[in-house]
Amino acid sequence: ESIIHLENIRKSYYMGSHALEVLKGITLDIYRKEYVALMGPSGSGKSTLMNILGCLDTPTSGTYILNGSDVSKMADDDLAEVRNKEIGFVFQQFNLLPRLTAAENVALPLIYGGVSKKERMERALEALRKVGLADRSQHKPNEMSGGQIQRVAIARALVNNPSILLADEPTGNLDSKTSVEVMEIFGQIQAAGNTVVLVTHEEDIAAFAKRVVRLRDGLIETDTTREPKHAMA
Ligand code: ADP
Ligand code: ADP
């Protein structure tokens, strides 16, 4: 059973009387525990598709079933609730708060959930453990490397136990060695049972994912599955 089911998804942007159709009928199933890289030229619709997958936006037409519920026609409030429960986001910009420690940054998404401070810190530590940074929990962002900072951002995305982890160019600000380190972390997270979908422009980065979906001009051009690369091999 798929965790993401997209059927004939279309998305148009309207500017005055002009409509621009950016997604032109995307049908795609992503299964639990998959590690998928989304590629394609600039303007092919990757960000638009990620915004729909992440429940930040709804399609103009078509069906999106996320973890069993139809989110394609949901009102904004309901969509926000699904988003908070089901989705973890990692961005190119790390968006950590500089005055907070790693653990406090990771715990931020839990503040709105009425979780006690003690439990917030426990869950933040557990998430930091998953990205191999339990020993940096009391460090502030300016005391960490770029790779460590991105791992803290990944831990923050995981702290709510989302059913899918979405990452938009997560290695866009990192050098190639650090990028590999971050991709390995995504691999471990996927192996531990999470579903990971990430956008990248770089073939070297996409090579870490088992499945690569390529968009072109609002349609899926190719969808290939192969043995992923491992940095440690
Ligand atoms: P990619 O991420 O592959 O570069 P995008 O999804 O960002 O592609 O954009 C696809 C096309 O849709 C581009 O032509 C872009 O300018 C247009 N577009 C994206 N978002 C909007 C928007 N909010 N309003 C109008 N046009 C948009
Ligand atoms: P990417 O690096 O994925 O190509 P873009 O620079 O295309 O990102 O888009 C960044 C953000 O701006 C996206 O959320 C997209 O929806 C929005 N955007 C892109 N093009 C337009 C546009 N023509 N009008 C309004 N918003 C846009």
From TrEMBL:
Pfam families: ABC_tran. It comes from the Bacteria. InterPro entries: AAA+_ATPase, ABC_transporter-like_ATP-bd, ABC_transporter-like_CS, ABC_transpr_LolD-like, MacB-like_ATP-bd, P-loop_NTPase. GO terms for molecular function: ATP binding; ATP hydrolysis activity; transmembrane transporter activity. PROSITE patterns: ABC_TRANSPORTER_1, ABC_TRANSPORTER_2. One of its GO terms (cellular component) is membrane protein complex. Keywords: ATP-binding, Nucleotide-binding, Transport. The keyword Nucleotide-binding applies. Residues 4-233 form the ABC transporter domain. Belongs to the ABC transporter superfamily. Macrolide exporter (TC 3.A.1.122) family. This is ABC transporter ATP-binding protein. It comes from Panacibacter ginsenosidivorans.
